[in-house]
Design goal:
The chain contains 46 helices and no strands. With 891 residues, it is mainly alpha-helical.
Length: 891
C-alpha cells in the first residue's frame, strides 16, 4: 500500500498517531478516488476543509478545552501535568511521538530563545523551536520605567528642544511683534496668553504669583507722574526698601570687618613666630659660616655671609611689619568689640543681616521689574492706546532682547545681542577697570577666550589685559598665574592694547577693528560650549539614573531626572506641580476620561507615553504593539526567510531590517501607525510567509480590524491561517490601540491561535491519510516545502524525502548512500528555490500524485478489463484526469 516503508511515512509526518475513529468517515466521503483528486478536493477549498475538520465533535471539544484552560496554567509543571493540554499542544507541533519524553520537553519549554546556546536553539529540528516559541514559560516581561526606545525618544526630544530653542524664541518674537501693534487696551494684552507669557518672561514676572491689578496698574502708569500707580504703589516701597537695606548694610559692615580682622590676627599670630624661627636659624647659620668650616676664600665667604644677613634683614623687616599690623588689628578689634554684639553672637547677627539685605533686594528687584514694565509700554492712565502706539520701535526691540536673554540657554540670537553690546561699548572704553566693572563685557571675554569658569572673575580679566606681554618676564601676571590656561591668557592679552597701569597710550584704542572682529569670532565659536557640556552631562545622568527608578516617587524625588524629562517635552518644571505630573504619569492612555486628557495639553500626553508607571505608581512592563518575545519570533522568521537562498548582502540587509523592525515596533501606538509604515508591513508579511505583492492596503486593514474570535470575520475567512497568526501576534484592541497583555499568561494570543490552527491542520492531514497515505504526503509537502532551506532539510524529514523519491522515481536504496552524496543528488534533481514558488509546488504535487498512484495501483482482474471494455489496464478515470493535468502543466 505504501511506496515507502510505513515507518518512514509515520515518523516524518509530524509524528503519526492516526485518528482511527475518523477513518471510516473519511473513506465514506471519498471512496476509491485517486491521490490527486482526493488532495484537490481538500486543497481547492482549504478554508472549508479546515473548518469542517475544526467543527468535528472531537476536534472542536479539544480546541475548546485548550482555549479555555491554557490561560489557567501558571507553570511548566502544571502544563505537563494536564494531559489534555499537553497532548493537544505536542500534537499541534508534530511532536506527539515525543509526548512521553516530558523531561526532554521541559528543557525545550524552559529554553531562552534569545540565547543561541539554549537547549531548543541547539536542536536541529525546528519543530522544537516552534513549540518553545508558542509559550512564554521562560519569557519574562521586565517592568521598567522606560524602554530603550522611550529613553531614546526623551533624549532626542531634549536634544531637539535645545537645538530649536532659538527657533522657538524667534517664532514667539515674530508673533509678539505682529500682534502687539493690534492691541488697543491693557486687558487685550493680558487676556492673550501668548502675549502675556512673552511679556512676563521678558520682564521676569512670575505667572503663578502675579497680581493682575499690579501689572495692569504698571502698564497704565506714567513714570513722570508722581501720582501714577507705579510711583504710588512701588515708589515709596522701593525707597523704604533701599533705606532698610542701607541700614542693614551699615550694621553688617563693621561686623564683617571685625571677622576679617580676627581672621588676619589668627594668621599673624601664626606667621610671626614662624618668621622668628627663620631668623634664629639664619643667625645660627651665620655663626657657623664665620668659622669658615668649608675652607672658602675670604671674598667668597664674605659674600655668602652677606647674603644670609640680607635675607635675615628682610625677615626682620617683615616681622616688624607683622607685629605692627598685629597691634593695629588688635586695637581695631578692641574698638569694635566695644560697640558691637559679643563675638559669640556675631555669626547669628551677620546671618540675620544678610537675610534682611536679601529680602530688601527682592523687594527692590521686584519693583524694578514693574518700573521697567511701565517704561516699556505707552498705555494711557485708563489702560487704552491707539493701535500701533503701545510700543515704539525701541521699546519693542528692548522687550525682544529681554525675552531672548531670559532663556537659560545662550541661543544664536542671544549671542548676537551680546556681541552687539560688546562692540557698542568697546569703542568708548579708555581703561581696563571699565571693562572689569561691566559684568556683560567680562562674561563676553570669558566665553570668547575659554575662561568661562568660576575661578576667573573681573579682577582676573583686568590683570590679564594689563599684564606685561613679554613672554620672558617670569614675574608678569600671565607667566606667574597662567598655568593650564596660559595660552588663553596670552590670546586675551593680545586682544587689547592697555598699558600695565590699565590706561591707553595716546592715540591707542582699547581694541583695533581687527582685534574686535577676532574677539567676536572667538565668542561666536564658543558661546554655546557651556550649554553643550551641560547637555551632555544631563543626558549622561538621565541615562545612568532612569534604570534605578522603580516607583513614581523615585522619579519625582530625583530632581535631575524630573527636570530633564519635563524639559524634553517643553514643560517648565517651575510652572507645573509635582501633583499634576504624578497624575499624568498614572493615567490610562486608552481611557479618554483619564486625568491626562482632562488637561487638554498634548505635551502631557506625550510625557505619559514616554514612561511605564501603573495606577499604583509602580513601574510596569512596557505597553508595546508587539511584545519583545513576539518581536524576536517575528525577526527570526524574517531572517530565515531572507537568508534561505540569499546572498551575504541579502543577509546583511535582512539584519538591518530586523533592527529597524525591533526599534520601530517599540514606537508604534496604533494599528493605523503600523499599517502606514510599508517597511513594517512588508517585514511582517515576509516573516509569515505571505507574498507582499498578494495583498494591498485595504486587505491589510481588513485583516487587522478583524475580530479573531468571530468565525465570520475577514481574517478567519482566509484559508491561509498565517493571517490569523500574524494579527494575533500584536497587542491591538478593537479600537486599534495598544493594550497591555496578561503578563502572567504562559502562552500569547498568537501562541494560542497558532497551536489551535496547527492542531486542526494536523488532524486534517491525518484524516486524509487514513485512506490514502499519498494524500497526506501531498498535504504535508505543500505545507512544509516553503520552509526547506537546504537539501539536508529534506534528508532530515522522512516524509519530504519520500515525496522527493517518488517525484524522481528513485529507489529506497539511495537512502543508504553517504549523506553528502544524497544531498548532492537532491540538488541535481531539484532546484530548492522552486519550493518557494506556490505554482511550481502545485505542479510537483500533481506529478507526485500521479506517480504515487502508479507505484501503488492495485492489480485489476483481466476479465474485468475485458468486461468493462477498458484499455487502461486498471488505470482509473481519476488517474487519467491526473495524467492529463500532468501533460498540460505538470513538472
Amino acid at each position: 500500500m505504501c511506496a515507502v516503508p510505513c515507518r518512514q511515512v509515520g515518523t516524518s509526518l509530524d509524528g503519526d498517531n492516526t485518528a482511527d475513529r475518523l477513518a471510516d468517515d473519511w473513506k465514506e466521503r471519498f471512496p476509491m478516488l485517486s491521490t490527486y483528486t482526493s488532495y484537490n478536493l481538500i486543497a481547492k477549498d482549504l478554508l472549508k476543509s479546515l473548518d469542517r475538520t475544526a467543527t468535528e465533535t472531537v476536534n472542536a471539544r479539544d480546541a475548546a478545552y485548550y482555549k479555555e484552560n491554557i490561560g489557567k496554567v501558571t507553570s511548566v509543571d502544571a502544563f505537563l501535568d494536564d494531559h489534555r493540554l499537553y497532548s493537544y499542544a505536542v500534537k499541534a507541533y508534530g511532536l506527539d511521538d515525543m509526548g512521553y519524553a516530558k523531561a526532554f520537553m521541559r528543557k525545550v519549554l524552559d529554553s531562552d530563545l534569545a540565547d543561541p546556546n539554549s537547549f531548543a536553539n541547539k536542536l536541529t529540528d525546528e519543530r522544537y523551536r516552534n513549540f518553545a516559541s508558542a509559550f512564554t514559560f521562560n519569557t519574562s516581561t521586565t517592568a521598567t520605567a522606560q524602554t530603550e526606545a522611550q529613553l531614546d525618544e526623551v533624549i532626542g526630544l531634549y536634544t531637539a528642544g535645545a537645538a530649536n530653542a532659538g527657533s522657538a524664541i524667534k517664532e514667539e518674537s515674530r508673533y509678539y511683534n505682529a500682534v502687539i501693534d493690534q492691541i488697543t487696551n491693557v486687558d487685550q494684552l493680558l487676556n492673550n496668553d501668548r502675549l502675556r507669557s512673552y511679556v512676563f518672561t521678558a520682564f521676569g514676572i512670575d505667572p503663578k504669583t502675579y497680581s493682575r491689578e499690579a501689572v495692569r496698574g504698571a502698564l497704565s502708569s506714567d513714570l513722570n507722574d508722581p501720582s501714577s500707580y507705579i510711583n504710588t504703589q512701588f515708589g515709596a516701597g522701593v525707597i523704604a526698601a533701599q533705606e532698610a537695606r542701607q541700614v542693614a548694610s551699615d550694621a553688617l559692615a563693621p561686623l564683617q570687618l571685625r571677622e576679617t580682622h580676627l581672621t588676619r590676627i589668627t594668621k599673624l599670630e601664626t606667621d610671626i613666630p614662624a618668621l622668628q624661627t627663620q631668623i634664629t636659624d639664619l643667625d645660627a647659620e651665620i655663626a657657623r659660616l664665620s668659622t669658615n668650616p668649608d675652607g672658602l676664600g675670604a671674598a667668597e665667604l664674605q659674600a655668602l655671609i652677606d647674603s644670609k644677613e640680607a635675607a635675615k634683614a628682610t625677615l626682620q623687616t617683615r616681622r616688624s611689619d607683622y607685629q605692627a599690623e598685629l597691634v593695629e588689628k588688635q586695637t581695631a578689634v578692641a574698638d569694635l568689640d566695644a560697640v558691637l554684639v559679643p563675638r559669640a553672637e556675631a555669626a547669628s547677627r551677620i546671618a540675620s543681616l544678610k537675610t534682611e539685605i536679601a529680602r530688601q533686594d527682592t523687594i527692590i528687584s521686584s519693583a524694578n521689574k514693574y518700573f521697567m514694565l511701565a517704561a516699556a509700554f505707552n498705555f494711557a492712565a485708563d489702560g487704552t492706546a491707539v493701535a500701533g502706539t503701545v510700543q515704539d520701535t525701541s521699546q519693542k526691540t528692548s522687550t525682544q532682547e529681554l525675552y531672548t536673554l531670559s532663556n537659560p540657554r545662550v541661543t544664536t540670537a542671544a549671542a548676537l545681542i551680546h556681541q552687539e553690546y560688546f562692540e557698542s561699548r568697546i569703542g568708548s572704553i579708555t581703561t581696563a577697570q571699565e571693562i572689569a566693572d561691566d559684568s556683560r563685557l567680562v562674561a563676553y571675554l570669558k566665553v570668547a577666550y575659554g575662561l568661562d569658569k568660576l575661578s576667573v572673575g573681573s579682577l582676573t580679566i583686568r590683570n590679564i589685559i594689563t599684564s606685561d606681554p613679554d613672554p620672558n618676564n617670569p614675574s608678569s601676571y600671565i607667566n606667574a598665574f597662567g598655568g593650564a590656561d596660559k595660552a588663553n591668557y596670552v590670546a586675551l592679552r593680545a586682544a587689547f592694547n592697555f598699558q600695565e597701569d590699565g590706561t591707553l597710550a595716546v592715540g591707542d584704542s582699547a581694541q583695533t577693528a581687527t582685534q574686535t572682529a577676532k574677539t567676536a569670532g572667538a565668542y561666536l565659536t564658543h558661546y554655546n560650549d557651556k550649554d553643550e557640556e551641560a547637555d551632555a552631562l544631563a543626558i549622561k545622568r538621565f541615562k545612568g539614573q532612569i534604570g534605578a527608578v522603580k516607583t513614581l516617587q523615585d522619579f519625582l524625588g530625583e530632581s535631575t531626572l524630573y527636570s530633564f524629562a519635563l524639559k524634553a517635552f517643553g514643560i517648565d518644571p517651575a510652572k507645573v506641580s509635582a501633583f499634576t505630573i504624578k497624575n499624568v504619569l498614572k493615567s490610562d492612555l486608552n481611557d479618554p476620561k483619564s486625568y491626562v486628557y482632562q488637561l487638554k495639553d498634548e505635551r502631557f500626553v506625550e510625557l505619559a507615553k514616554a514612561f511605564n508607571f501603573g495606577p499604583d505608581g509602580n513601574v510596569t512592563a512596557p505597553k508595546l504593539a508587539q511584545s519583545e518575545a513576539e518581536i524576536l519570533v517575528m525577526s527570526r522568521a524574517y531572517l530565515t526567510a531572507k537568508s534561505r537562498f540569499g546572498t551575504k548582502d541579502d543577509k546583511e540587509l535582512a539584519q538591518k531590517e530586523a533592527e529597524y523592525y525591533s526599534a520601530q515596533m517599540q514606537k508604534v501606538e496604533t494599528v493605523k501607525e503600523f499599517l502606514s509604515d510599508a517597511r513594517l508591513v512588508a517585514f511582517v508579511l515576509t516573516a509569515n510567509g505571505i507574498d507582499t505583492k498578494s495583498v494591498d492596503a485595504e486587505f491589510m486593514a481588513k485583516i487587522f480590524t478583524s475580530d479573531l474570535d468571530d468565525p465570520k470575520s475577514f481574517a478567519n475567512q482566509q484559508s491561509n491561517r498565517a493571517y490569523r497568526k500574524m494579527v494575533a501576534s500584536f497587542n491591538f484592541n478593537s479600537d486599534g490601540k495598544v493594550v497591555q497583555p496578561d503578563a502572567d499568561a504562559v502562552q500569547s494570543r498568537r501562541g494560542i491561535y497558532e497551536t489551535i490552527d496547527s492542531h486542526v491542520r494536523q488532524m486534517l492531514e491525518e484524516e486524509a491519510g487514513s485512506d490514502n497515505a499519498g494524500v497526506r504526503l501531498a498535504l504535508y509537502f505543500e505545507r512544509k516545502a516553503p520552509s526547506v532551506s537546504s537539501a539536508y532539510d529534506i534528508l532530515a524529514d522522512d516524509a519530504l524525502f519520500a515525496v522527493f523519491k517518488t517525484l524522481f522515481q528513485l529507489p529506497d536504496e539511495v537512502g543508504s548512500a553517504n549523506i553528502d552524496a544524497q544531498a548532492d543528488m537532491i540538488k541535481r534533481h531539484l532546484d530548492l528555490k522552486d519550493l518557494q514558488d506556490p505554482e511550481k509546488v502545485s505542479k510537483m504535487i500533481v506529478k507526485f500524485s500521479v506517480l504515487y498512484d502508479l507505484d501503488n495501483q492495485a492489480t485489476t482482474d483481466p476479465a474485468l478489463s475485458v468486461l468493462t471494455a477498458s484499455g487502461s489496464a486498471g488505470i482509473s478515470a481519476d488517474l487519467m484526469m491526473s495524467l492529463a493535468q500532468l501533460r498540460t502543466g505538470g513538472a
